[in-house]
DNA sequence: AGACTAAGTTTCACATAATGGAACCACAGG
DNA sequence: CCTGTGGTTCCATTATGTGAAACTTAGTCT
């Protein structure tokens, strides 16, 4: 999947290459990339050189492999702290985690996928980057559905087109139709469930974070297991979660005027 | 500043723009960027469009501002988990933190700057992205000097050229000469100190993480305050830190063969 | 209102920068 | 010594990006 069919210009291609490297998740050789890439040898080679020269990739001389560069980590730090809800939402997540004692996720929608930007774990201490930055499917997670439910028609269709509808479990909503029906229900009640749709035994209740104009800018969820609780019990928390979501929405609304300069 | 004088090609410029946005650390309007950018209006505009279209930037319709995009966060997660020492070093850092009870930093060198990739805080729980991804000066931090001390001549000169030598405190080594002398001493003894060179009252002892060939791929440090301890006490820990660094080096050495495929 | 100004967007002739087929190099096996 | 595979460089061709200037809005001042 050379993915981004609409790769505009040279930078589009370069970023596409970055994604390719990222997708492997381990050091890759030139030839690893060449197969499956639509770019001709020389072009791919030059793109890699440029990216490496720019610090977006790192080249291991000895092994002849490329990995993602540290410049990305630096940029992402800035991205995370200025563009994500995480820094704002932190105190509210802490609170919610303390009160519920369950796992909390904060997610945003990125190109039709769920991007987790923060997390509180019931038991273990927080796990740095290893959780923030993770992506997941939108059509079969609580946070994902909560956000999809508030997209306008155009954006929704675009997002749906990007879903794989892979059937992770027997409960997974595996067609656009089922999903759309579910989204209406979610809009109605104001929060979403994950009924073991992504992983067996894992359930959650998720609430969208809405702007005044009704756009979903993120979602918060409380996750648990069927062993420990059930949907009804989680639903009882919905009000509490909504409350947190509303408060996050409120600070997010103000925050866009960091300085009026 | 327009920094990257050697901005090769279009992607170089695009990435340069990304950095510019990142540098402000808050939503920026078009005109904010235009001043201080050497690119002509139309060019800058097109670059911004492309980056936005690619999800590297996000554009806020209402305010007319750009911020870094979430795609970066996604990429960085991959970068952090495949290219940084953090995932490998984690258990050793935990151990070191537990034993010393002080603040632990894990850093790598990126374009002449110190990039913190992980951290253990004495008291508070870990702070996600907010610490990882941060950058700091190399010439006046323990981890920075520890790594500089093991650069070869060419790389060292290049790195020194990138230092600001801003005098943060009376103790800051504010010339290349003083720094070079210090680096020799560090190489001799195998670890570096920060003698309140960056922040008054903050001291640390840092050890480079060395490959078999003697290249520094990162550094670990134990940080404390003059109120709580002193350099002599920190130096007593040096052996312990060296031990951690050596063990991290060992796993890092193997790790580059994730699968021989 | 009407006349200015500043911020953002589009155009278009032009030149630079990316393209990719093919040739080249280096090295490992047979 | 030949042959194949992985990686790097050339270079004529052309697509792409360039940027001065013109154009739209959306405010602001008088």
Question: How would you explain this protein's 3D organization?
Answer:
The structure is a homodimer of 261-residue chains. The first copy, chain A, is α+β, with helices and mostly antiparallel strands and 261 residues long. Chain A has eleven helices and nine strands. Chain A has a six-stranded antiparallel sheet with strand order 6-5-4-9-8-7, with helices on both faces. A three-stranded antiparallel sheet of chain A has the order 1-3-2. In chain A, a hairpin with a 4-residue loop joins strand 2 and strand 3 (65-68). In chain A, helix 1 (9-24) packs across helix 3 (41-53). Residues 1-5 and 257-261 of chain A have low confidence and may be disordered. At the A-B interface, helix 1, helix 3, strand 3, helix 4 and strand 5 of A face helix 1, helix 3, strand 3, helix 4 and strand 5 of B. The structure holds a DNA duplex (30 and 30 nucleotides).
In short:
2 copies of one chain form a homodimer. In chain A, 46% of the residues lie in helices and 20% in strands.
Number of strands of chain A: 9
**Greatest interface by residues involved:** A-B, 66 and 65 residues
Rg calculated over all Cα atoms of chain A: 20 Å
Number of helices of chain A: 11
How many strands, what sense, and barrel or not for the largest sheet of chain A? 6 strands, antiparallel
**Can you say what the CATH homologous superfamily of the largest domain in chain A is?**
GAF domain
- DSSP strand (E) fraction of chain A? 15-25%
Q: Span from first to last CA of chain A? A: 44 Å
Q: Helicity level of chain A, as a percent range?
A: 40-55%
Number of domains of chain A: 2
Q: Classify the secondary structure makeup of chain A into a structural class.
A: alpha+beta
Q: SSE string of chain A, helix = H, strand = E?
A: HEHHEEHHEEHEHHHEEEHH
The CATH architecture of the largest domain in chain A can be named as 2-Layer Sandwich
Low-confidence stretches of chain A: 1-5, 257-261
What's the multimeric state? homodimer
Q: What general outline of chain A do the C-alpha atoms trace?
A: globular
Mean pLDDT of chain A, rounded to whole units? Answer: 86
**What's the CATH topology label of the largest domain in chain A?**
Beta-Lactamase
Please give the order of strands in the largest beta sheet of chain A: 6-5-4-9-8-7
CATH C-level label of the largest domain in chain A: Alpha Beta
